[in-house]
C-alpha cells in the first residue's frame, strides 16, 4: 500500500499512457495572450497607463499562479516607474489593480506548485465530479473541480480496478500525470457522453 501511495498502479499507468499527454486547460494561458507588436499585451499597456495616471505609490503583491496551486508574496510599496521596470524585465508577468488599489503582478506557470507535487490526488467528489484534492480525498480539501463523470460508462469501459483506484484517489506528482488523468477521464465526461448518444441516435 505504501508503494502504491507513491506510484500509479500498472493498470492506471497503462491506461494513462494510451492517452495524449496535454490537457487543453494547461495551455489556455498561452492561447489567451493578446500581444501587441512591441511585446506588451494590450491589457498591460492599459494597466500601466492607469498606474501612470494615478501618480502615487501602490502596495505591490506578486502571485505565482500554477496549473495547480499558487504562491503569493508582498513586494512592498512602489511607484509607477519601478512597477513598469519590473514588467519590462519580466515579460511573462501580467499586472492588474484590485478594488483596493493594490497592484498584483502575476506569473502563470504551466506546472504544478511544489505543494501540489507533494500532496495532490485526483478523485471523484460526492456528485461524481472529477476533482483535484490537496491530500487524500477523504480529507475533502478541494483544489479544483473539473467535470461530472458518467460512472456507468466508466464501469463498462475501464479495466477492472481502475474505477476503485479513482474513488480511493490517484496520486498526482507531476504535470504529465495531471494532464494524463484529465485527458483520460474527459472521455467519460457527462457532456461528452451525451454528445456521443446524440450522434448515434
UniProtKB/TrEMBL annotation:
<dbReference type="InterPro" id="IPR015050">
    <property type="entry name" value="BofC_C"/>
</dbReference>
<dbReference type="InterPro" id="IPR038117">
    <property type="entry name" value="BofC_C_sf"/>
</dbReference>
<protein>
    <recommendedName>
        <fullName>Bypass of forespore C C-terminal domain-containing protein</fullName>
    </recommendedName>
</protein>
<feature type="domain" description="Bypass of forespore C C-terminal">
    <location>
        <begin position="111"/>
        <end position="186"/>
    </location>
</feature>
<dbReference type="Pfam" id="PF08955">
    <property type="entry name" value="BofC_C"/>
</dbReference>
Amino acid at each position: 500500500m505504501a508503494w502504491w501511495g507513491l506510484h500509479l498502479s500498472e493498470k492506471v499507468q497503462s491506461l494513462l499512457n494510451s492517452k495524449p499527454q496535454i490537457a487543453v486547460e494547461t495551455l489556455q494561458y498561452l492561447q489567451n495572450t493578446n500581444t501587441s507588436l512591441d511585446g506588451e499585451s494590450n491589457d498591460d499597456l492599459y494597466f500601466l497607463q492607469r498606474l501612470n495616471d494615478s501618480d502615487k505609490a501602490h502596495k505591490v503583491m506578486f502571485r505565482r499562479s500554477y496549473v495547480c496551486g499558487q504562491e503569493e508574496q508582498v513586494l512592498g510599496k512602489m511607484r509607477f516607474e519601478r512597477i513598469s521596470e519590473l514588467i519590462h524585465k519580466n515579460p511573462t508577468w501580467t499586472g492588474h489593480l484590485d478594488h483596493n488599489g493594490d497592484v498584483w503582478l502575476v506569473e502563470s506557470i504551466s506546472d504544478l506548485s511544489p505543494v501540489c507535487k507533494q500532496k495532490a490526488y485526483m478523485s471523484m467528489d460526492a456528485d461524481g465530479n472529477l476533482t483535484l484534492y490537496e491530500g487524500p480525498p477523504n480529507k475533502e480539501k478541494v483544489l479544483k473541480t473539473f467535470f461530472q463523470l458518467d460512472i456507468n460508462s466508466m464501469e463498462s469501459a475501464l479495466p477492472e480496478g481502475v474505477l476503485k483506484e479513482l474513488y480511493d484517489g490517484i496520486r498526482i506528482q507531476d504535470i504529465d500525470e495531471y494532464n494524463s488523468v484529465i485527458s483520460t477521464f474527459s472521455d467519460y465526461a457527462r457532456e461528452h457522453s451525451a454528445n456521443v448518444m446524440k450522434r448515434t441516435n
